[in-house]
Write a structure and sequence with these properties.
With 255 residues, the chain is mainly α. The protein has 14 helices and no strands. It starts with a helix and ends with a helix.
Length: 255
């Protein structure tokens, strides 16, 4: 009889432990799903929708560097630069090897108009930590491009494309950098590898226009319009670049 009572007591105790374990697992699974949802929202650029769940998760898990970095991304893309800076800084304090936090902070600094080296240092640090992430090379290349450091931008884009050749945006950015150096044949090749024929001609036209060669720009824009007559942006480029600069109407259209 005593054995039976002990057996029942043991069964009840084990049952209670199993219930507690199941509840703990359910809570863990729920948090995991919420983190996955937040990641997905940020990845799909649904930054406003991601902000509330990320704030809740950060409050629950203040030592999670990834959550701080994700919230930094959400704030940055909504123009909340000071809040984004605080989240990136917090993520880096928690995990100095957090590549996405360095990359996000570098992009943030560039958006804020930092013309010095701080943004570039952050982006280079992100690459050093995670050299297989193509977005870091693209962002570094663009940061160098806007500073007029075109050979360095080209080097960054080329290294990114060496690791990830299918990055069409990076190909087009590389083409623009070649155009700034007057290497239009190289620019043309990259544009053709980065998009449709119409897009390639349009981008080449833009490169010529930026160099001051309106005649070549006009020709490229007209060719793009023939290939894609329904594209409004291309039609506007034709109207602007092909206008007679000596006419009153053309003068009004000068950028």
């Amino acid at each position: 009889m005593r054995t039976s009572i002990i057996g029942c007591a043991l069964l009840v105790a084990l049952s209670g432990c199993a219930s507690t374990s199941a509840q703990r697992s359910a809570r863990t699974d729920g948090t995991y799903l919420r983190v996955q949802l937040a990641r997905s929202l940020v990845a799909h650029r649904e930054f406003a929708a991601a902000t509330v769940p990320l704030r809740q998760l950060v409050a629950e898990r203040p030592q999670d560097a990834e959550l701080h970095a994700l919230l930094g991304d959400a704030y940055r893309e909504q123009g909340l630069y000071e809040a984004a800076q605080a989240e990136y800084d917090g993520a880096i304090r928690l995990d100095p090897k957090r590549a996405d936090a360095f990359g996000g902070r570098g992009l943030l600094r560039d958006l804020q108009g930092d013309g010095g080296e701080a943004a570039l240092e952050d982006l280079r640090t992100a690459i050093k930590i995670d050299p297989e992430q193509p977005a870091f090379y693209n962002n570094l290349g663009f940061a160098l491009f806007v500073r007029g450091r075109y050979p360095e931008a080209i080097a960054a884009y080329r290294e990114g494309l060496r690791r990830s050749p299918d990055q069409h945006r990076m190909r087009n950015n590389l083409g623009l950098a070649y155009g700034r150096l007057g290497h239009f044949n190289r620019a043309k090749r990259e544009f053709e590898r980065g998009g449709s024929r119409a897009a390639a001609r349009n981008n080449l036209g833009y490169a010529y226009e930026q160099s001051g060669d309106r005649a070549s720009a006009c020709q490229c824009y007209r060719e793009a319009a023939q290939l894609a007559p329904s594209l409004i942006a291309v039609a506007k480029n034709v109207e602007r670049a092909c206008a007679d600069p000596t006419s009153d109407d053309g003068a009004r259209r000068e950028p």
